[in-house]
Design goal:
The complex is a heterodimer of chains A (138) and B (386). With 138 residues, chain A is an alpha+beta fold. In chain A, 49% of the residues lie in helices and 20% in strands. Chain A has a 3-stranded antiparallel sheet with strand order 1-2-3. The longest helix of chain A is centred in the C-terminal third of the chain and has 29 residues. Chain B has 2 domains: 131 residues, Aspartate Aminotransferase, domain 1 (Alpha-Beta Complex); 237 residues, Aspartate Aminotransferase, domain 2 (3-Layer(aba) Sandwich). In chain B, helix 1 runs antiparallel to helix 7, helix 2 packs parallel to helix 7 and helix 7 crosses helix 11. The radius of gyration of chain B is 21 Å and the shape is globular. The chains are: A alpha+beta (138), B alpha/beta (386). At the A-B interface, strand 2, strand 3 and helix 2 of A face helix 8 of B.
């Protein structure tokens, strides 16, 4: 394995946690661009504003995969507000750092998580509206 | 078990070469310019090595100068010829898949007022001689085309281009770093004026190479000093390295046929084993016009650095043209030139063989590669499982 990566990055790359998708996910966040070599998708199951389950899929280099894996561990069980506070730097710190060149391009996991939470909040707003309409129908 | 299949980056040095070099570190210490016995010894060693290098490419020994490697050879050839010929013209033609030492040297020459035309290649990496010819003007002084590409293995129609350049009185430079020692090269037959080779690609030591300068071709030196190497490469000769390169050429001249034959059958096994058994896997480069030691692919939905690091965990060392693997974060210009989209270039893998690789190693790679690719695809949001 490459010398530039910390042991934690290597470990998460070799054995990524929470890989996959969630059936009936409450929210999905997808960031990145295949042209740049990184695409991350995070899916959430949310109950009472708490992240009950979280899964990811990532196309990208070892640091992209490791940061995705790490953020699923960091976010699981947190409230949405707490999860929104996790930054890119927090993820890199938890992994004992990333090579400088990877800090920008392959450290999108926090963005993916935030995007998923925003997706959930959008849906909540629409859902409330929908509920109103349904009531109207009845 | 470690399996080394990154020989296009750096190859092992043949034990017979190391043995030939040893005496020149301690007991044979002379400088070839010295008049005493040790000096004569060194001169003899230098000229023997020159003869061995010349013989590999069918040149005369006086047409060979020793350099520090392929990059320096390309620099001396292009800068030297451009400066020497600038009264005649300022136009240089190269192809889109040249080595960075040609690409960036030409960029630098552009800053000095030279004009550079880059001729595209087709999706197999082949350059069309007619497209080069169409770019020639009365100001064209140099055409530079690699013999074969080190990332995709494609072999260019060098003899055709050579015949054309000779007819038009244009200097023909060929970067043969990847091709030398793998396929037969004949500078006379191919009408080559300048040809770069590197020792390490011949299983010789690193840090030494050669430039063939056809008799009658004049260059302006890049390195000036004591006038060694016909004045084209001043500086005391690196005798141990040069002796090593000479020995490497001597060996490879005898063994090129068996070496390349063996590597070609391993390469075939690698290519067939991947294309025949794996989904969404493609060969890059030309299927038949290719160097015998380059198996190059791309895999959809996954990224090259991840492939390399996963293979490394399984004991296999290879390389990729993925942008994520380099400091510039730009994909290989070769893969872009053959028409791959950046996301496709991300999934590239290069397995480059040496004369010691075995069928057993190839089979282990063929067993391991699907495990790696399947695992990464299972992680990838771009892959839907078909």
């Amino acid at each position: 394995m490459d010398i530039d990566y910390s042991e934690k990055v290597k470990e998460h790359f070799r054995n990524p946690r929470n890989v996959g998708t969630i059936k009936d996910a409450d929210a999905v966040g997808r960031v990145g661009n295949p042209v740049c070599g990184d695409v991350m998708e995070i899916q959430l199951k949310i109950e009472d504003n708490i992240i009950k389950d979280i899964k990811f899929q990532t196309f990208g280099c070892a640091s992209a995969i490791a940061t995705s894996s790490m953020i699923t561990e960091m976010a699981k069980g947190k409230t949405l507000d707490e999860a929104l506070e996790i930054t890119r730097n927090d993820v890199a710190d938890e992994l004992d750092g990333l090579p400088p060149i990877k800090m920008h391009c392959s450290n999108l996991a926090a963005d993916a998580l935030h995007s998923a939470i925003e997706d959930y909040m959008e849906k909540q707003k629409k859902g409330e509206l929908k509920l109103g309409e349904n009531e109207y129908d009845v | 078990m470690r399996i080394y299949m990154d020989n296009a980056s750096s190859a092992p040095v043949d034990k017979r070469v190391i043995e030939a070099m040893f005496p020149y570190f301690d007991t044979h210490v002379g400088n070839p310019t010295s008049l005493h016995s040790s000096g004569i010894d060194a001169r003899r060693a230098l000229e023997n090595a020159r003869e061995s290098v010349a013989s590999l490419i069918k040149a005369q020994s006086k047409e060979i100068i020793f350099t520090s490697g392929g990059t320096e050879s390309n620099n001396i050839a292009l800068r030297g010829a451009a400066q020497r010929k600038k009264k005649k013209g300022n136009h240089i033609i190269i192809t889109a898949i040249e080595h960075m030492s040609v690409v960036n040297t030409c960029k630098d020459l552009q800053r000095e007022g030279f004009e550079v035309t880059t001729v595209p290649v087709d999706k197999y990496g082949l350059v069309d001689q007619a497209r080069i010819e169409a770019e020639i003007t009365n100001r064209t002084i140099i055409i530079s085309c690699q013999y074969a590409n080190s990332e995709i293995g494609t072999i260019q129609p060098i003899a055709q281009i050579g015949a054309m350049t000779r007819e038009q009185d244009i200097i023909f430079h060929v970067d043969a770093v990847a091709a030398a020692g793998k396929i037969h090269i004949d500078v006379q037959q191919d009408n080559i004026d300048l040809l770069s080779i590197s020792s390490n690609d011949l299983y010789g030591p690193r840090g030494v190479g050669a430039l063939y300068v056809r008799s009658g071709i004049l260059l302006r030196p890049v390195m000036t000093g004591g006038g060694q190497e016909r004045g084209l490469r001043s500086g005391s000769e690196n005798i141990p390295a040069i002796v090593g390169m000479g020995k490497a050429c001597e060996i490879i001249k005898e063994e090129i046929k068996s070496d390349s034959g063996r590597m070609e059958s391993l390469q075939e096994r690698l290519i067939e084993g991947v294309l025949g058994n794996m989904q969404h896997a493609y060969l890059t480069g030309h299927r038949t016009r290719r160097l015998p030691h380059i198996a190059s692919y791309r895999f959809s939905f996954i990224e090259g650095e991840s492939i390399i690091l996963s293979l490394n965990d399984l004991g296999i060392e290879a390389s990729t043209g993925s942008a994520c693997s380099v400091k510039t974060l730009e994909p290989s210009h070769v893969l872009i030139a053959i028409g791959l989209r950046p996301e496709e270039a991300h999934g590239s893998l290069l397995l480059s063989l040496n004369r010691w690789n075995t069928e057993k190693e190839v089979d282990y790679v063929l067993e391991s590669l699907p495990l790696v690719v399947d695992r990464l695809r299972a992680l990838s949001p771009l892959y839907n499982g078909d």
